[in-house]
Amino acid sequence: MRLSEITKKLEKAFPKDIAESWDNVGLLVGEKNKDIKKIQISLDATEKVIEEAVKNNADLIITHHPLIFSPLKAINDSTLLGKKIMKLIKNDIALYSMHTNLDSAENGLNKYVAEIIGARESKIIAENYRDVYKLAVYVPKENHKEVLKKVQETGVSLEGYDDVSYSTECIERYRISGEDNAHTVDNIKVEVIGEKGKMFQLLNEIRKIHPYDQVPYEIFSVENRYLKGGIGRVFSLEKPVLFKEYVNLVKEKLSIENLRIVAENEEKSVKKVAVVNGSGMSFFKKIKKLGVDVFVTGDIKYHEALDAAEEGLNLIDLGHYESEHFFNRLVVRELIELTDVETYIMNEKPIFKYR
């Protein structure tokens, strides 16, 4: 199966455009039309992970954390990052990453973890909305179906619907400079609404098949708000429990032996819970306004914990790895129907050890 077919399936569930602006997701190393027979799923692209992929003849590594975040000035063996990239290229292994787009997706990692620790229904904490545009193209009737085919091939999707367009019959009237008589042509106006980048991509594709040298079109931003996802989930437990009891429930459900807590009162009743997997303390102020009883996240720093304690908000620090290694399950869930591709999971153990 071609890599582009695999990424198209993944991006339907975890669209790249819902990633945070600072993030770097998608195909980071490799050729999009490469033939894929074996996929390794790993949280991080460490040297051991890449070596395992080489050993197992994997064609593709799918990670949660992107290997490349910042622009590169050079790729050579003088840096760890350079060595990793060179090994991937040398062994013809593609690297594809899904990070905050997988966290934020409708059925992404934040929601998945929330459901494990007691959510029946949950709401997004920090909502993000799509930058939506409308493209209207005028085309002769005989070329109408070709344009609709391009809409389908481009993969325009919005609010759970694919390939949505609106076609209206219209008459084009024009007069060539220097001539007396006007000409008329029966046209179809095809209108499509979608994410900004997709609209310009679609326009470029239509230009390839449109019979006119100068394609008549309109493209503009619309005020419609379409939720594209968001970080974190907030939910209410079915019934209140003591904080110390909820800590034990979280440890059991997530199979975590040790975690850190911040709690002035472990006998405090817990009903409303917020969760942000990975490092979530940047959302502390927003979460405090939600009136939650406990915030579940990872990578909590000392002064962040101190502030939370003084604010009276109990914290559960799962650890970064511990809150995100479920990434593997979500990827497998999306790829399980691919019968002609072998998938396996390779994760290293958490980097931190407890004595």
Radius of gyration: 25 Å
Number of domains: 3
Name of the level-1 CATH class of the largest domain: Alpha Beta
Helical proportion? Answer: 25-40%
Overall 3D form: globular
Q: How far apart lie the N and C ends?
A: 46 Å
Oligomer class: single chain
Strand order of the largest sheet: 5-12-14-15-16-13
Order of helical and strand elements = HEEHEHEHHEEHEEEEHEEHEEHEHEHHE
- How would a crystallographer describe the biggest sheet? 6 strands, mixed
Which stretches are poorly predicted, pLDDT < 50 over at least 5 residues?
none
Quick one: CATH superfamily of the largest domain?
NIF3 (NGG1p interacting factor 3)-like
CATH architecture of the largest domain: 3-Layer(aba) Sandwich
Counted by DSSP, the helix tally is 12
Main structural class: alpha/beta
Which fold name fills CATH's third level, the topology of the largest domain?
Udp-n-acetylmuramoylalanyl-d-glutamate--2,6- Diaminopimelate Ligase, Chain: A, domain 1
Number of strands: 17
Q: What's the rounded overall pLDDT mean?
A: 93
Proportion of strand residues: 25-35%
Binding site for a divalent metal cation 1: 65, 103, 320, 324
Family: Belongs to the GTP cyclohydrolase I type 2/NIF3 family.
Binding site for a divalent metal cation 2: 64
Keywords: Metal-binding
